[in-house]
Specification:
Blueprint (H helix, E strand, L loop, with lengths): L9 E5 L4 H11 L6 E2 L11 E2 L5 E2 L1 E2 L7 E5 L6 H17 L4 E6 L18 H12 L3 E5 L14 E4 L2 H11 L7 E5 L5 H14 L8 E9 L4 E8 L6 E9 L3 H12 L5 E8 L5 H5 L6 E5 L6 H5 L3 E4 L2 H13 L4 H4 L5
Parallel strand pairs: 1-6, 6-7, 7-8, 8-9, 10-11, 10-13, 13-14, 14-15, 15-16
Antiparallel strand pairs: 2-5, 3-4, 11-12
Helix pairs in contact: 1-9, 2-3, 4-5
Bound molecules: ribose-5-phosphate.
Length: 344
Amino acid sequence: MAKPKGLESIRILSGRANLPLARRIAEILGVQLCEADAPGKKGRCYGPGRFPDGEVSVQIQQTVRGKNVFIIQPTSPPVNEHLMELLVMVDALRRASCREICAVVPYLGYARQDRKMTGRVPISARLVADLLETAGVDRVLTMDLHAGQIQGFFKVPLDHLRPDRMLAKYIYDHHRDWLANLTVASPDIGGVWRARRMAKRLGELLHKDGELPLALVVMQRDEERKKVVVKDVIGKVRGRDVLLVDDILSSGKTLVTAAEELAAGGAEKVFAACTHGVFAGEALKVLDTPQLQRVLVTDTIAHRDAVRKAPQIEIVSVAEFFADAIRRIHRHESMTDLLAYMPV
Ligand code: R5P
């Protein structure tokens, strides 16, 4: 298959974490996914295999010498498996003399462990950055890091895509009815800037001067009781529809606790937009509450059937966005409007 002009020296690879997304990105770029499989394995395969003892085994099946390689692999659960696959693939590529390796990690696992919150704990996000660099990545492309400062854990360039413009446009195109009476809220203090970006983007789309109103659910994690506890709601929510904006949906408890609190405070309908849908454990059951009308998540993480079919969940694809970013990185074009630096 002839590669589109300007993409002749590109190679797109995938680990096993999110093959549907990798396939879609390759399709948009008009290139074929490079096969990467266990050595000697027959038949087409696009992700590493396993030795009988569980160790990751991989052989890149096409030449990559002198090529720019993009490996698409979110480090989603099972996190350690996916991380190790990524590291081993990078090592294989480095030893196969490719030109540049870009780790495309749409969701970066371990990102919540970005500082010491108590004694004798690791800063695992930094360790992951070191591991990727030691393996040999030349750059990283990711989306909505838990904390933007994690960029600084990497010495190699890291392009940090923001999902707010894409999600705002999706809401504007598919759920215009949400916008008539909407307040945007963050379910925790650390995420206020994320909600504010969304409020600004939606305001821009509605041609309003300024942004949509903002609210904040002040929560604290009670480590002893292993639950989140609401301390306060700041901002006017009574009589308003509210869009909760968060980076990660894991157990679903943060969203549901916030939605219940907003409903108790007089909010009409509560929706949510989360970039990374981890859906850990019983998350689907937890989210099945009348207080939460609908939850948008992206496909930075591959979703199991139950998630895709859940009536309250709607999946927004990031494939076009990542394909555009990969094309620009490969062609050394500006990324500024994708990274969308926005003062908050
Ligand atoms: C926390 O700081 C994050 O931004 C999310 O709010 C959190 O990871 C969500 O986790 P869960 O769905 O388990 O409540």
